[in-house]
Amino acid sequence: MQEGLEAREATQGSRSAGPRRPSRGLRPARVRENLSAYMFIAPFMIIFGVFLAYPVFYSLYLALHRVPTDSFDVFGSLRFVGLANFQLLFSDVKFWWSVLMTLYYAALIIPAGIAVSLTLALLLNNRLKAVAFYRSAFFMPYVLDMLVIGIVWTLIYSPHVGILVRILESVGITAFSERGFLGMPSTAMPAVVLTNVLKGAGFGMILYLSAIQNIPQSLYEAASIDGASGWQRFRSITLPLVKPITFFMVIIGTISALNAFVEVYAMTGGGPNVDVGGRALGATWVTGYYVFDTFYNQFRLGYAASMSYVLLALTLVVTFVNRHFLGAEEER
């Protein structure tokens, strides 16, 4: 009883004393601890500021300026033009054609990438011989550089030395013997998409495989007891439970499509040309390649920077729309 009274008095005494303040001896130690933490993150903050933050603000500065046509000093003679570069974009047919080709590219590569990745994950989730080898083999192209893979597939699609054209000719198909896959407007974009899908399928396969292996087997066993077929188990169990991975693949695919450049640079250079209302426009002329051509070949720095900001706005809008619809569907 006496001990309980003493404990209550000690508790009341501590409450009346209010929050404890660090003693004077602890303050220098805390300052040294914070200083050490800032020293550890300083290298990253310096690299982030120089290579990421500064280019973002400088590109906005470029988007509001223009290089005079009679000047060879592309950085020293910039002239402030306000929003003129953005206004010029609205009347640029080539820019809107590149946006259309980018959307076409995204419409092909996103569903194809998800379908191939999910199919590989379902196949390699079974108990097969040398399954680890197959998983490594399918993942290997993802770590290779896109430029190297693009050059290799350019040779495969070639009408002169391409093995794919030779195989088709052996079964009587000669439609690609003259111009190959990349020389025809109707097949150039699907050929580029196929190359990129096969390169990135290993990454999606790993994501889907990890999600599928986390699904409790008891759900499949209960569905089998109820008489559900394999397709019904896939549609009612597997597909809903891997939806977060699908949403992630859609977001990543959208961003990759809006930034597509290396595969087009390595395989088609924006071509082949197609006649659109009397204008010769590239069948694979995506916005990423148009930004590159405007910046490095035409030295229109401000105009290229304004295009990059429009692409950023498109990326945010598409991401928001995807998140809204997929998130709403997930809440049902």
Account of the 3D structure:
With 332 residues, the protein is mostly helical. 72% of the residues lie in helices and 4% in strands. It is built from 14 helices and four strands. Helix 5 packs across helix 8 (185-213). The longest helix has 38 residues, at 26-63. The mean pLDDT is 84.
Fold topology:
Layout: H1 2-16, H2 26-63, E1 65-66, E2 79-80, H3 84-89, H4 93-124, H5 131-143, H6 146-157, H7 163-170, H8 185-213, H9 217-225, H10 230-241, H11 243-258, H12 262-267, E3 273-276, E4 279-282, H13 287-297, H14 301-331
Antiparallel strand pairs: 1-2, 3-4
Helix pairs in contact: 2-14, 4-8, 4-11, 5-8, 6-8, 11-14, 13-14
Question: Which tags fit this structure?
Answer:
mainly alpha, globular, single chain, 14 helices, two-stranded antiparallel ribbon
Q: Note the gap between the termini.
A: 58 Å
* Percentage of residues in DSSP E strands: under 5%
Q: Low-confidence runs (pLDDT<50, min 5 residues)? A: none
- By oligomeric state, this entry counts as single chain
Order of strands in the sheet with the most strands?
Answer: 1-2
Cα-atom radius of gyration: 29 Å
Structural class: mainly alpha
Order of helices and strands: HHEEHHHHHHHHHHEEHH
